[in-house]
Design brief:
Oligomer: heterodimer
Structural class of chain B: alpha/beta
Largest sheet of chain A: 7 strands, mixed
CATH architecture of chain A: Alpha-Beta Barrel
Bound molecules: iron/sulfur cluster
Strand content of chain A: 15-25%
Number of strands of chain A: 7
Mean pLDDT of chain B: 97
Strand content of chain B: 15-25%
Mean pLDDT of chain A: 95
Distance between the termini of chain A: 34 Å
Largest interface: A-B, 56 and 79 residues
């Protein structure tokens, strides 16, 4: 997995609540058997019209935000299905960090597995970042995972929380499965015990 | 020992390893796999030279993008769908997991097949790369959706890296009025809590109205726990649960059954267990409901009217405006005057035999409205066969419904069953998101009986008027 340490980039403002996974990546793009290549279809139905022309007023189509690396959004971001295609599409587009007042649970998990940092913040702090992001290309925001600080283009600093284990994995680009397999003895012991206590499983 | 909730008990029984910060390796008893969220996971295993840790606890079935018309076992026209189904076929066989291909009568929606075959049992941990895994919570199993990386993790290790959620109790007291169903309960709860009301929680549904539900009704309730944002929904197992499980192909038998039963009977929340959040709704207060917008929280009784954006607060004002525009609705229109052109009965929410019976009871001796496209998609091949045996299939066909083969179908429209832009559908599924049933399609969620009533009248209808 790609490491995440510190990121400075343009943030795209998407001031909408309940942005669901069907919006992030509509199901017609779930038929792939690969993890890559979904970036062009990120937010597909909002981004393109019926003739597949870009809708000029959609934020990621505006010149200032075409290379956004951060997304600022409303509450309950990523609700809906468990499709990991959502974070894959976000990552493939080039966005590495999503900031919102709240996230849906599965989406939140999926981000960490793909080197994306989701940051939940109180609404008033998201509002500050949303305003900052609206300034466009020159307003670059910095997300420093090690120190858990976001710095706005005006130099204002906002602290954020992240679970220590997840931070560790993200900063070192660690593969979960490899880490878990180091605990194979615990798993084997659990299975041996369960074979006795719940043999029907 | 201190008192525990049902969730606490199941959680504690499955910790294979706990780190200092509380991150656990949760042991997974059943891993359900379908064709859309698994190919990248199997590919990952192959690339790393890993195997499936417990193929005996892994069950695969194609459902999301299989066509629901005959001939699909011979050939699937859509290239991408066929590639995914073929990939599942190959992966299931290469890695030796249990598998129900489309040619098998037991094939169906993964969340219907699991319980039907006795894979899902009380006290288990069940995961699947699909958010509606919450369905299995109806058995008192801790069941939730996971992403593809987690699918790969479970395949490789039979565990999930997990942190414990908080406990939430949703109590539905008293009795339901006639015409009110499990679907109305679960939609009403989301209407009350919002789609993020359950975020961070595992919900246990309890109370007399829940106890009174059949196992199938309980599955409908738990199915939509995710729509309320919860990690999982649970219902404590009872005699109904045990009766449902007994004799299923993969349920324990003989002395193992006795041992299992003894443990299952300890699976309930202790009286003085701690709840982080409690919600109580009177069963008598629940009406038959429909959704009017593009979020499952946009729920109102069928007797109400389309709301105005100004009726809401905060970000919901804009969201409601957008919803109404997308749905092509005007504030103030009585919901029961909204005309529909399509009806979809099926999905893991309402694709079981009792759902089909409830719809057929309304349809018997009637015809669907002129120009209506109505489709019923049984949740599994076995549900389909049973409906045919009971004569229900004929009721649907006589009324003018298409009688399809099992799969997810128009619930998410990954197969050819889709809405055209602007088409409006009465659906028994669980999501009314923009484009969910086809780009530009408009979805109203409701119970099977309500969908059947709408099919007959051609507009959203209070089923109580037809009972
Ligand atoms: S029926 Fe719908 S909700 Fe259920 S598993 Fe299939 S696509 Fe998902």
């Amino acid at each position: 997995m790609e490491k995440f340490e510190k990121l400075t980039g343009v943030a795209a403002p998407m001031d909408m609540i309940n942005i669901d996974t069907d919006m992030i990546i509509p199901k017609n793009f779930l038929k792939t058997i690969k993890r890559t290549g979904l970036g062009v279809n990120l937010f597909d139905e909002m981004r393109y019209d019926d003739d597949r022309n870009e809708r000029p007023d959609f934020v990621l189509n505006k010149p200032a935000y075409r290379n956004a690396e951060i997304l600022i959004a409303g509450e309950n971001f990523g609700c809906g299905s468990s499709r990991e295609h959502a974070p894959w599409a976000i990552k493939d587009f080039g966005i590495r960090c999503v900031i919102a007042p709240s996230f849906a649970d599965i989406f939140f998990n999926n981000c960490f597995k793909n080197g994306i940092l989701p940051i939940p913040l109180p609404q008033d702090q998201v509002d500050i970042l949303m305003k900052d992001a609206e300034k466009g290309e020159n307003a670059r925001i910095t997300v420093d995972l090690e120190n858990q600080v976001i710095t706005t283009s005006d130099g204002e600093q906002i602290r954020f929380e992240v679970e220590s284990f997840r931070k560790h994995c993200l900063m070192n680009g660690l593969d979960d499965i490899g880490l878990t397999l180091e605990k194979a003895a615990s798993i084997d012991a659990f299975e041996a015990k369960a074979a006795q206590s719940r043999p029907w499983v | 020992m201190s008192s525990k909730t049902l969730y606490d008990k199941i959680w504690d029984a499955h910790i294979a390893h706990e780190a200092e910060d509380g991150t656990c390796l949760l042991y997974i008893d059943r891993h359900l796999v379908h064709e859309v969220t698994s190919p990248q996971a199997f590919e990952g295993l192959r690339m790393a030279g890993r195997t499936v840790h417990a193929p005996d606890k892994t069950i695969a079935v194609p459902d999301h993008n299989v066509p629901t018309t005959p001939g699909r076992d011979v050939h699937i026209d859509n290239d991408e769908s066929r590639i995914q189904v073929d990939a599942l076929d190959k992966n299931a066989r290469d890695f030796g997991v249990h598998y129900y291909p489309v040619s098998d009568i037991r094939q169906g929606i993964v969340h219907i097949v699991g319980p039907e075959q006795g894979w899902t049992l009380p006290g288990m941990t069940v995961v699947c790369g699909d958010s509606h895994t919450a369905t299995h919570g109806a058995f008192g199993a801790l069941a939730h959706g996971i992403g593809t990386s987690e699918v790969e993790h479970v395949l490789a290790t039979q565990t999930l890296i997990s942190k414990k959620s908080k406990n939430m109790k949703v109590e539905i007291t008293g009795k339901l009025a006639p015409g009110v169903t499990a679907k109305d309960i679960t939609l009403s709860v989301i209407g009350k809590t919002g789609t993020a009301g359950g975020t961070g929680y595992v919900i246990e549904y309890c109370g007399e109205a829940i106890r009174d539900l059949s196992m199938e009704g309980r599955m409908t309730v738990c199915n939509m726990a995710i729509e309320g944002g919860a990690r999982a929904g649970l219902i404590a197992p009872d005699e109904k649960t045990f009766a449902y499980c007994m004799g299923r192909p993969h349920a324990p038998k003989g002395t193992q059954w006795e041992a299992a039963l003894a443990w299952w009977k300890t699976l309930y929340s202790d009286d003085d267990a701690h709840w982080d959040k409690v919600i109580t709704i009177r069963g008598e207060d629940i009406a038959p409901v429909v959704t009017w917008g593009t979020s499952p929280e946009d729920v109102l009784p069928i007797t109400a009217s389309v709301p105005a954006p100004e009726d809401f607060k905060g970000g919901k004002v804009d969201a409601a405006k957008r919803s109404l525009e997308y749905m092509g609705l005007t504030a103030g229109t009585p919901l029961n005057q909204i005309k529909i052109d399509t009806v979809f009965i099926g999905s893991c929410t309402n694709g079981r035999i009792e759902d089909l019976r409830a719809a057929a009871a309304i349809l018997k001796g009637k015809k669907i409205a002129e120009g209506m496209r109505a489709m019923v998609v049984p949740g599994s091949g076995l549900v389909r066969a049973q409906a045919e045996e009971e004569g229900i299939a004929q009721v649907f066909i006589d009324a003018g419904f298409e009688w399809r083969l099992a799969g997810c179908s128009m619930c998410l429209a990954m197969n050819p069953d889709q809405l055209e832009p602007g088409e409006r559908c009465a659906a028994t599924s669980n999501r009314n998101f923009e484009g969910r049933q086809g780009r530009g399609g408009r979805t109203h969620l409701m119970s099977p009986a309500m969908a059947a009533a709408a099919a007959v009248t051609g507009h959203l209808t209070d089923v109580r008027e037809m009972m």
